[in-house]
Design a protein that fits this description.
Growth Hormone, Chain: A, mainly alpha, 2 domains, about 220 residues, globular, about 80% helix
Length: about 220
């Protein structure tokens, strides 16, 4: 929604600015691995809070970028932070949820993507070009929702499922033991994991397609 504004401000082409989108998507698996492992070893709560704090910092920094290179670096690290959010958010929403309600709740959770796009559109209309700062307030205000999430998460404890796992797991479990657990999960659920990878790849492809080639344009 603000690609033309960014291109004008950084004196780059539109295609050069869209590299920021790519660099936000590619490193998500890094964040998913880092914060996912942290959540399994140290609990769902604090890795999630730290992850959101990381998002807040990067959103603010993007709004203060003065060069194209600074923008790309911030967007790359933002992708890492973004990749870590979904796993812990899903754990909080679904781990203690009754089995019969998990399909409904997972659907509501997934709708966060579309709601986020709607919220971004509203903020763009209300903030971009309404002040002397141009597109920058969009990112500054984008740092606010994670703050609310942090406050909400601070009021909650660990999920019951994680506490049960923690009591069964030896406190001295090392990386070797974690790798063994991961291998067992992959062996048992490899079909579901492959399905989820393909599903999320399709989602990402559609999002990128509509972002780079909006309806009505020629490809």
């Amino acid at each position: 929604m603000i690609i033309p504004d960014l291109a004008k401000d950084f004196k780059r082409s539109t295609s050069a600015i869209t590299l920021g989108l790519t660099l936000s998507l590619i490193p998500r698996f890094v964040g998913a691995a880092i914060f996912g492992i942290a959540a399994d070893r140290y609990g769902r709560k604090w890795p999630f809070i730290i992850n959101n704090a990381f998002l807040v910092l990067l959103e603010l920094l993007v709004g203060f970028c003065r060069t194209y290179e600074e923008f790309l670096v911030c967007r790359t690290f933002f992708g890492i932070a973004m990749g870590g959010i979904y796993g812990n958010a899903a754990a909080l929403a679904l781990e203690d949820c009754p089995r019969k309600a998990r399909g409904l709740m997972s659907g509501i959770l997934q709708s966060g993507y579309s709601f986020g796009c709607l919220l971004a559109a509203v903020l763009t209309r209300g903030l971009v070009d309404t002040t002397k700062h141009g597109w920058r307030p969009l990112f500054w205000f984008g740092a606010c929702p994670p703050v609310l999430v942090i406050i909400f998460r601070l009021c909650l404890g660990e999920t019951e499922v994680y506490e049960e796992i923690a009591t069964l797991r030896n406190a001295s479990t090392n990386i070797k033991g974690f790798v063994a657990e991961a291998e067992e999960v992959i062996k048992r659920y490899w079909v579901r994991l492959l399905y989820l990878i393909l599903l999320m790849t399709a989602f990402s492809t559609l999002v990128c397609s509509f972002t780079l080639f909006p309806p009505g344009t020629c490809i």
